[in-house]
Design a protein that fits this description.
Alpha-Beta Plaits; Maf protein; six-stranded mixed sheet; globular
């Protein structure tokens, strides 16, 4: 079966927002065994939406629309779909009460426009949106399924995961499919591929390996589709088979592997700190609090995170972390000596058992011949030792901040594993 | 005239890459007076490409394709287009020499596959790619234009700016189009719509208003297309007319408006600090460094940002910021009293002229009947005054962190504008 993704909204057509929704949707649908064979974007008019839906449905079994469902008058998706499927509109009390409850919870008065939000096509199956106001809608016509979702990413993701995917798998009787993802950090796609070449060549035809690179990390995804006649326990058998391949693959890349599935470096580090009963503190210059943000994105981080000293100025480095003026004068803020003093100083200043310190030149300005933009020093320290490393990333400020954080968290992870 | 953007390649359909090309292309085309009325993506097969081009051409005067032009065997775009336009393929000596020169310049041997790169449809006008190997192609058929460009972003951008846009402007009589975006924060789509209802209803038919909501913010976009007979200064007249509508709209929402076009709260706050020659420090609990991260995402932030004390534990709040143990005992960490002591304490601790302090319950755990998850207190202080506010967001940790940061930056902005 095939899906077509249709985004509705002029903001995509004039390029004011970058469409990240459909990339996420494509990945999620593919993982659920539903291939995407086309995507398109149309504007906010009745004609454009009707044309877009007709085109989308021509080559697909399911059309998933996003956008054009907000409470204001430029949202005509709902009315156009009602027209297309020959459906009356009706006020839906349950949806209105849910929306009213939502506004009560966030302590805001219920806007009158929310009555329109709860006025829905009678032929639609309502997909309950528990994280926003606009409900999703599911239509069926001529053996095809048409789904309309709000364009706000987290609302779309919630509805895809909770409603759309399970319903589509049941509706279209999708063949059993399974996935295992291995998370690696610190090595590029080409070198990983070289190492695991023999493993990859020996995979049976119903198991595929994909490389999914991101900044500083590569995810390896094994995907299996049940190859033969369907049996009652096909899913379990497929899962068990894939577990074996995952273990084989993991054994070949121990120094790059840090986790599985949806794990993250900050969660892995958090669990290590918790298990070792250690309190962490970070001393950040070039990352400007981004590492602390990643660490505190994990629920329960307060159990192992004391805090961060984001010492953006040299004055702060001296005052808060006790970095010596002589060190800054002799070596500069981006140096091994400074970053080591930041890490050891932070042990006391932040009341931490282990500290991570980072100082670099994020760019786009501030580089020199000796220390180009992208130069970053990091140090990890506890009461017994302090290690420091240097690297040079590129010229892009945001990439440098993100790569620095990934590299720093991985260095901390290895330090905690005592494997540095 | 209208353009349709067609991306070719399985990597888009499986969600492995996020399509940033077409957002850039849309903005660039719009600025040149060429409206994009549709976008679509198809896979790497002859059938998909033929179907995609037919669909694209149905409602547009120009079809701009990207992707599917590399040297590997899965790139069949060129052959499919030759077939579509009934064109023979021929080896193009000038293109081959250009590619050879390119490889010479980057000091790499010329791969044999480059002979294929220089084999091109005879009916195509070749668009010379001076920054890569694959040339662009321009076809004309039945009064429409079909353009094929490589998918590598900087090659596509080069060809768009140097070749495609100038040629399109000559080829078609373009109708002027213009946009203005107003950035608001602190109020939802529905209430903004209510406030500006009369303005919106009075807009002439050639000017449209769109609401683009994001977390805690709503962008309002006015779009105008020249309505009448074309005159020499139509573009300037349209821009001037739209400026007036923008100013009218801005005047109706002064307390929510914070900027225009591609600006951001962190940039606005940064410029205010710079103009007022003030150093900022943040004292963050629930946001865990996220506000500092936003502020330091802006190049040049070191000119006005001293640093942050991310005091995640009570111990740190006392030690670094001087919050009194009695205050924490009597009121808790999430309270007006604590957040005020954090803000005033940070003035000294962070050597700052103005400070922003925040403490809240990000969730998903840690709430109580009196202080539910999502409860957040913020304070902004300088040497003369300290203001504090409370709000309650929802139950989602990441949303709470992001909404808190937006709200805090906006509160700081208003404090700096002396409008609180």
């Amino acid at each position: 079966m095939h899906a077509h993704l249709l985004t509705i909204g002029d903001e995509i057509l004039i390029g004011q927002i970058i469409d990240t929704n459909t990339a996420w949707m494509s990945r999620t649908l593919n993982q659920a065994g539903i291939a995407v064979n086309g995507k398109s974007s149309v504007g906010d008019t009745r004609e454009a939406i009707l044309g877009g839906v007709a085109h989308a449905a021509a080559a697909a079994d399911v059309v998933i629309m996003t956008g054009g469902l907000g409470p204001t008058k430029d949202d005509i998706t709902k009315k156009t779909l009602a027209e297309l499927f020959g459906s009356e509109m009706a006020f839906h009390e349950a949806t209105h009460q849910r929306i009213a409850g939502y506004f009560e919870k966030i302590n805001r008065p219920l806007p009158p426009a929310m009555r329109d939000q709860a006025t829905l096509p009678l032929k639609a199956i309502i997909l309950v949106n528990k994280v926003g106001t606009a409900p999703g809608m599911w239509f069926e016509a001529d053996g095809k399924v048409y789904i309309s979702l709000p364009g706000v990413p987290f609302e779309m993701e919630y509805l895809m995961e909770q409603e759309v995917i399970p319903r589509l798998r049941t509706h279209f009787q999708v063949r059993p499919i399974a996935h295992r993802t291995l998370l690696t950090v610190g090595e590029g796609e080409s070198n990983i591929a070289k190492r695991i070449e023999a493993f990859e060549d020996a995979l049976p035809p119903h198991i595929k390996l994909a490389y999914l690179p991101a900044l500083g990390q590569v995810r390896l995804r094994l995907s299996a589709t049940w190859p033969g006649v369907l049996v009652a326990d096909a899913q379990e058998k497929l899962e068990a088979e894939l577990d074996q391949y995952r273990d084989q693959l993991a054994a070949q890349i121990p120094e790059w592997l840090y986790g599985f599935e949806d794990d993250s470096l900050e969660r892995v580090v958090g669990r290590l700190l918790l298990a070792q009963n250690k309190q962490l503190g970070t001393a950040e210059s070039c990352t400007g609090g981004y590492i602390a943000h990643l660490i505190t994105s994990v629920p329960g981080a307060s159990n192992y995170f004391q805090g961060a000293a984001v010492t953006y100025s040299n004055t702060q480095k001296m005052k808060v972390l006790g970095v010596q003026a002589e060190t800054l004068d002799a070596h500069g803020a981006v140096s091994e000596a400074t970053v080591r003093e930041m890490a050891t100083g932070a042990l006391e200043a932040l009341g931490a058992d282990v500290t991570l310190a980072i100082s670099g030149i994020a760019g786009p300005d501030g580089g020199s011949a000796e220390k180009p933009v992208g130069t970053v020093w990091i140090a990890v320290a506890d009461r017994n030792r302090c290690v420091a490393f240097k690297t040079v990333f590129g010229r892009d400020r945001m990439k440098n901040i993100q790569l620095s954080a990934t590299w720093a968290l991985n260095t901390l992870r290895k330090f905690l594993l005592d494997s540095l």
